[in-house]
Design brief:
The structure is a single chain. This protein is an alpha+beta fold. It has 2 domains: 6-166, Aminopeptidase (3-Layer(aba) Sandwich), CATH 3.40.630.30; 171-322, Aminopeptidase (3-Layer(aba) Sandwich). The protein is 37% helix and 28% strand. The protein is built from 10 helices and 14 strands. The strands form 2 sheets. It has a 7-stranded mixed β-sheet with strand order 1-2-3-4-5-7-6, sandwiched between helices. A hairpin with a 5-residue loop joins strand 6 and strand 7. Helix 1 (14-33) runs antiparallel to helix 2 (43-50). It starts with 5 loop residues before the first strand and ends with a helix.
């Protein structure tokens, strides 16, 4: 591999743009054909991206002096194997947005995708890029970027699945042999202990409910665990997800991490989407938690669990997210 001639060809001339746009069209057809996570856009959105108007707009981005976007063709041993489009926002926070990234099917599963990204990453970091972000629309691509250092940041305002290398984001982390002690040491205020189980108890509960696909996630910020959240499947009718336990460590409360973390776990379930609703049971006295769930879109129901009459039942509907994303996409297309 090291003996091969690897080239990032920055597109500048008409003949190169003709090749670039042919690769771009193939990429777009494949993206929309293989959509499976996030909000599904549909054929009208594909027409928008393939339109001449969009390509004229992209040419303006390629020509602007500040925060220039770059179309780049991947070449190895004189063979074209793919392309990327990216833009580093030097005037803002140093984010390098990977707009498009494509390896031709016949060259996949050979390590070329990771190798070319390392070349792009090195080039942009040397020019001042601080971190990288992108959107994915299927699980294969999500796994690829996860293996290249990206983590899930949820879904954006249009329902696209977003990933980043920015360590200052809030992430979900698996609880494992490397961080379980840190997780066990997470604590809540004394007054919250009536509503929330201990860290060790939550981890144990995840094991007890393992047959219900229970998952216990650490909530991570800047490399540190700041909270825990446990979800599981309710497989008796009506089937749904359930948020069983959720808290932010007392040292990090009242800083907005609760809302961000809750949105992230909802986005995680929206991406997986085995069910159409999320259920949660909240103690009536825990008004702070109830207000948080209402703020993010949970709706109180009339159901009362006879085993927990002092709690209220709340539901979140993915259909509401679909409606919001559809409306935003319609507005975007109308604006363009």
């Amino acid at each position: 591999m090291n003996r091969q001639k690897i080239e990032l060809k920055y597109v500048e001339h008409d003949v190169d743009f003709k090749l670039y746009w042919s690769l771009y069209d193939k990429f777009m057809d494949e993206v929309f054909e293989n959509e499976e996570i996030g909000h599904i856009s549909g054929s009208d959105y594909l027409k928008q991206f393939n339109s001449n108007e969009n390509k004229v707009y992209m040419h303006k981005l390629f020509g602007r002096e500040i925060d220039t976007a770059f179309p780049v063709i991947f070449i190895i041993n004189s063979e074209v194997v793919g392309f990327t489009t990216y833009c580093t926002y030097h005037s803002e926070d140093g984010k390098c947005l990977i707009v498009d990234y494509y390896i031709l099917p016949e060259y996949r599963d050979s390590g070329l995708g990771s190798m070319f990204f390392e070349r792009v990453k090195e080039a942009e970091i040397n020019k001042g890029a601080k971190f990288f972000e992108l959107n994915v629309s299927n699980r294969r691509n999500m796994n690829f970027w996860s293996n290249n250092g990206f983590k899930l940041t949820g879904v954006d305002e249009f329902g696209s699945v977003s990933m980043t290398t920015n360590k200052s984001n809030v992430f979900l982390s698996e609880i494992n042999e490397e961080n379980w002690i840190e997780a066990v040491n997470l604590k809540v205020h004394d007054w919250q202990k009536n509503y929330i189980g201990s860290s060790l108890g939550i981890i144990a509960r995840g094991y007890v409910f393992r047959k219900s696909n229970a998952k216990v996630f650490g909530i991570e910020f800047c490399g540190d665990l700041i909270g825990l959240i446990m979800i599981r499947d309710i497989e008796e009718e009506p089937k749904c997800y359930e948020i069983q336990q959720f808290f932010i460590d007392c040292r990090f409360q009242d800083k907005g991490y609760g809302y961000v973390s809750l949105k992230l776990i909802i986005d995680y379930m929206y991406i997986e989407r085995k069910y159409e609703t999320i259920e949660i049971s909240v103690k009536r006295e825990d008004t702070k938690a109830i207000n948080l769930y209402k703020k993010i879109g949970f709706i109180k129901t009339d159901y009362i669990d006879i085993n927990s009459p002092d709690s209220i039942n709340m539901l979140f509907y993915f259909e509401d997210m679909d409606k919001m994303f559809s409306e935003k996409k319609r507005n975007l297309m109308n604006d363009n």
